[in-house]
Amino acid sequence: MGGGSSGGGCRRSFLPHSLRARTTLGVTGLALIFLTAIGAGANFLILNRVQAQIFDEAERVAVNWGASLQPGSTRQPVPRTRIDLLQLVDSRGRVVTASAAAAGRPPLSAVRPPADDRIQARTECSGPGGCVMLAAFRVPQPESSGLRPDEPRFVYAGMTRPPILTGYLLQLLTAAGVLLGVALAAWVNWWAAGRNLRPVETIREHLSDITVSDLSLRVPQPPGCNEYALLVCTVNRTLARLDEAVKLQRRFASTTSHELRTPLTGLRTRLEEAVLYPDDVDPRETVREALSITGRLETIVDDLLVLARLRAGTPAAHEPIDLGALVVQEAAAQAGDVPVHVHVDRDVHVRGNRIQLVRVLNNLLANARRHAGTMVEVTAERADGQVVVTVTDDGDGIAPQDRERVFERFVRLDEGRRREPGGSGLGLAISRDIAQAHHGTLLVEDTPRGARFALRLPIQQEPAALADPARR
Fold first, then answer.
1. CA 452 from centroid of its chain's CA atoms
2. Measured in whole angstroms, how far is the alpha carbon of residue 50 from the centre of its chain?
3. CB 420 within 8 A of CB 370
4. Among 362, 372, 410, 448, which one is least packed by beta carbons within 10 Å?
5. Cβ–Cβ under 8 Å, residues 406 and 251
6. Which among 189, 204, 219 is the end of a domain?
7. Which residue has better confidence, 54 or 251?
8. Beta strand 119-124 with 132-138: parallel, antiparallel or unpaired?
9. Does residue 276 sit in the same domain as residue 195?
10. pTM metric for this prediction
């Protein structure tokens, strides 16, 4: 399988897919640009420095030797520096005296510095032996007394231009240094990127071993608290949540199939009896029982669809709701022999979906009336920035070990099965999911007698209260 396929739909690109190769390519390009600029600048500075040193030295030698000449002197100069080409030339261009290296050579230059600019530096390439870097110095007249004013003398001091200024040795050495530096930068980045990305490869290998059938595996936690450790920690938490979700889904599928199989089996049994024993079975009774079982199946399916939408996080339209008025309305709509006493504070407002909140209140009220002995008490009040709705009955209550189990799907306690044999066991599970979808909670709280369900939702101030600071 090619690299593009293994990457899970990677788009084609001229760049390599490997992050290690990409970073190395980028660092190599930047290093090449950076080092080339540095090399070019260094090469320019070195050449200028060498040339400036030669000219400075030539000027110094020319001035010192010209100043040491006596009138009529023709002594041969003896250079003690690398400036080995020395000549004294008269106004007619004749060499009066010269160093050993410059003996027999024509004048090194034809330049004649004027009296107001006695010394000039230049490079002459007209003579044999290559280009000469020299300084031309006009010997001052006071220093040459005895000579006619119209016969000045000139000193030329210089040297053959060195190879560093004539060839490409420096450029070649600079280019070699740049290439070596680029290669070193590329190798260091390749090694460092491989070392830094090694934990990512380890994470990838372990994740590839994890399948849906076995989500219990975890990625080994690396030491330290760097980005890789935080990534592994997040991955393991995600795997734990996924493992728990899959387990819940499997339990839900198993429980759902069992809950649906029971009424379907009963329905099939009734229909088969009506077909096999038409003389012994009352058709009207069979149809009546079949409709009853079908109604229970419909209730279970509707509740399952509601749960699926809530668990999928499907957004529902929210609006400001006077929860106190809604509690009073739903409590009055509950018909039955058990009275419902309602105590509601004023201005108890929340933001939520009216249909979903009505379903929660109906589930809690129906559950309380089913288990109550003589009465049901409902309250809605503010507490700690929340709206708290409690539904309390005076029945047998719920054991502490069962107070969380009652919110699980298809869980029905023995008392609930006895009082309502046809229930689906999904009402409280749906109610809790609705509460959580509204950023609230639904719990069973302690009470001296019976059972108390407490629904807590974030409070929302009325528009008038928001506009009037005095009411805050």
1. 47
2. 52
3. yes
4. 448
5. no
6. 204
7. 54
8. antiparallel
9. no
10. 0.49
